[in-house]
Design brief:
The chain is α+β, with helices and mostly antiparallel strands and 387 residues long. The protein is built from 11 helices and 13 strands. The strands form 3 sheets. Strands 5-4-6-3-1-13 form a 6-stranded mixed sheet, sandwiched between helices. Strands 10-11-9-12 form a 4-stranded antiparallel sheet. Strands 2-7-8 form a 3-stranded antiparallel sheet, covered by helices on one side. The radius of gyration is 21 Å and the shape is globular.
């Protein structure tokens, strides 16, 4: 891939003198969905697919961007002295947002750059192509200009830029999983205080298979912010009767004892998901540590049911993928992953069942939805790096 991006860089920007090549992964969340903005736990891992970038410092303040994934847009230009989100700037709002965020955090970028990207994460899939671009941009800025920031800082700057530049009220999970990724490990992250541990994911005889629904969704214009606000309202109602800072602090029992404080039945279901999903995530990590992969799969399945019924973020595409997966012998667990409303599912599938799984689920999905899903057998990889 390094050779491919360098060749394209030369084609687009003239030559490759002084160019460096970088990589930042995508991520998948194994369990713990819509808990990251509710002070709960998440359990994501970085993937070996992601975003490649070739960058070179300029002598002026100009920024020139090119994406091999959006080649039809050509070279998009911007200026370090006038960084603002613009519809016509398209995908470049993500790297621009990170550059803006560095400035906001006191790191002044002295020169512009030529930046070429090529991602092999399916776009709009919910595997965090935007967070991958954000972390990659931050990593490049740190490397090229010597900024004293940690990988954890890169995650926080990426989230800050997405919240405040791109207007998506996302939690910290995506950027954190990408910036802090570790091969063959998932990250058990407490989003309330960013304490985390690495848990080895030993899938002897099984693999992670991502099914991409190919239903596009945009986080900013989805019901994501609506769900977030429903949880915030439910929390403020519970705070009238309990001393808590986030829904993630509650056990199932505490929630059941106090849920009458929430005045709307829809909000009760939203908060129930946040509380129960957080507990499922804690139990899932315990199951993995005890090498109980069957229990882990059962918790994945229960997570999807809760996302479908209590949180209502799945939709017919994701439900079809998961329900068809459950019918295949050799599927240990399957659930939607990401924000929902399209995007992907993640399934734990025994090696000998992978071909059958892709065939059966693929055919059933095409028959019911009318267009095909894409399948990716993925591995857990490291965080960002220089190639």
């Amino acid at each position: 891939m390094k050779e491919i991006v360098l060749k394209k860089f030369e084609e687009v920007f003239g030559n490759v003198e002084g160019v460096k090549v970088y990589f930042a992964p995508g991520r998948v969340n194994l369990i713990g969905e819509h808990t990251d903005y509710n002070a709960g736990h998440v359990f994501p891992c970085a993937l070996t697919i992601g975003t490649y970038g070739a960058a070179r410092v300029r002598t002026d303040r100009k920024l020139r961007f090119y994406s091999m994934n959006f080649g039809h847009l050509g070279v998009l230009e911007a200026d370090l002295d006038n960084l603002k989100p613009e519809k016509k700037a398209d995908w470049t709002n993500y790297p621009k947002g990170v550059m803006w965020a560095f400035g906001e955090k006191g790191y002044q970028i002295p020169f512009g750059m030529d930046l070429l990207l090529n991602g092999n994460i399916p776009n709009g899939s919910g595997l965090s192509s935007s967070a991958s671009v954000e972390v990659l941009t931050g990593y490049i800025l740190r490397d090229l200009f010597g900024f004293d920031v940690s990988n954890q800082d890169l995650a926080l700057i990426g989230q800050f830029s997405e919240n405040n530049f791109n207007g998506v009220n996302c939690g910290i999970m995506d950027q954190f999983a990408i910036a802090m990724g570790k091969k063959d490990h998932a990250i058990f992250l407490d989003t309330a205080d960013l304490s985390y541990t690495y848990a080895p994911v030993k899938l002897e005889g099984a693999k992670l298979v991502i099914a991409c629904s190919n239903k596009k969704r945009g986080l900013g214009d989805s019901k994501y912010n609506e769900r977030r606000s429903e949880c915030e309202t439910a929390l403020s109602e519970l705070q009238k009767v309990m001393d808590i800072k986030g829904l993630g602090e509650l056990t199932e029992e505490q929630f059941e004892e106090n849920k009458s404080a929430i005045k709307d039945p829809v909000r009760v279901r939203r908060a129930k998901h946040a509380v129960y999903e957080n507990q499922r995530t804690v139990h899932a990590v315990e199951a993995l540590q005890a090498n109980d992969i069957v229990k882990f799969g059962q918790l994945m399945n229960a997570s999807h049911v809760s996302l479908r019924d209590d949180y209502e973020v799945t939709g017919i595409e994701l439900d079809t993928l998961v329900e068809e997966a459950w019918k295949v012998e050799g599927v240990i667990g399957s659930r939607m992953t990401g924000a929902g409303f399209g995007g992907c599912t993640v399934s734990l599938v025994k090696d000998e069942a992978i071909d059958t799984f892709i065939d059966q689920v693929g055919k059933a999905y095409l028959a019911k939805i009318g267009y095909a899903a894409d399948f990716y057998v993925v591995e857990i990889g490291d965080g960002p790096c220089t190639l």
